[in-house]
Amino acid sequence: MKRAPLSEHLEELLHRMYIALAALIVCSILCLPLVPYTIRFMKENLLPPDVELVALSPFDNIIALFEMTFVLGFILSFPVILYEVLKFIVPALYEHELKILYLTLPLGILLFLLGASLGFKLILPTMYSICSKVRLGQTTIFSLRSFIEYTIMLLLGFGLSFELPLVMAVLNLLGIIPVEAFKENRPVSYIVLAIIGIVFLTPEATTILDLIATFLLIGLYELGIFVSELVEKHLYTHKA
Q1: Nearest in space to 146 (alpha carbons), one of 60, 34, 238
Q2: Residue 132: which of 123, 141, 124 has the closest Cα?
């Protein structure tokens, strides 16, 4: 296969980045009217009824508007962005790498949605409910901007954490990390996962939520080992 000059690769990369950026901007503009409804939906599903969202600075409303517009625009333009990324990287992949990509891509999207859904349905409502019960006055007030940023960060964190088994399986499939290495490094991995769960996934939460996040990550790690073992057995059977 003839290799294209570096200048052609850079030109194609810029071209596809422009298309992805244009799609993001257009979709963000289209999503602008949906922001108030999205914030209301988040408030109704995540916060207790007696909690009020307020802007604590003159720029909070504007910043919150831009942040939500960007997030909604990214979600809407994601198919276009993904298409442009694939069009750029697919020609450089070998056949076996393409098979792995086409197998893991839909699984990765599904796992991310499952993780984000768990965070939205269970972790975030519980955490915000606990926070709202600590009162020094009659009314509990949350910062609008902090609420949006914190919610987005945690949904992203839980979505990405559910990618762990898939990442482990792919690393094993490519021969980068054998399953025995995952098993031998369990103690260190558990400590790292506990730190991630406590510090990043539930930084403002109680001990119960910290334990839930930690055991969830450990469970995902064990699932990754199980899937990696299945991958190794499958490869061994085919080689035999």
Answers
A1: 60
A2: 141
Q: Do 35 and 144 touch, CB atoms closer than 8 A?
A: no
Convert 94-104 to b/e letters by CB count within 10 Å (16 or more is b).
Answer: eeeeeeeeeeb
| 40-98 residue pLDDT tens | 999 999 998 888 889 888 888 999 999 999 999 999 999 999 999 999 998 888 888 88
> Burial level of 218, CB count in 10 A (0-12/13-18/19+)?
middle
What secondary structure letter does DSSP report for 199? I
User: How many angstroms separate the CA atoms of 21 and 80, rounded?
Assistant: 10
Which tokens is 48 given?
């207790």
Domain residue ranges of the chain, discontinuous segments joined by +: 1-161, 163-235
CB 230 within 8 A of CB 219: no
Task: Give, as one character, the DSSP assignment of residue 58.
Answer: T
Helix (H) or strand (E) run with residue 142 in it? strand 140-143
Output phi, psi for 203, to 5 deg: -65, -30
Give every CB contact of residue 32 below 8 A, 6+ residues apart in sequence: 65, 69
State whether the Cα torsion 196-200-201-207 is positive or negative.
positive
Q: For residue 47, what are its two tokens?
A: 């916060």
CA dihedral 138, 143, 146, 152 (to 10 degrees): 80
Summarize pLDDT for 110-130 with one digit per residue, the tens: 999 999 999 999 889 988 888
Handedness of CA 60, 64, 67, 69 (dihedral sign): negative
pLDDT of 190 > 60? The answer is: yes
CB 177 within 8 A of CB 168: yes
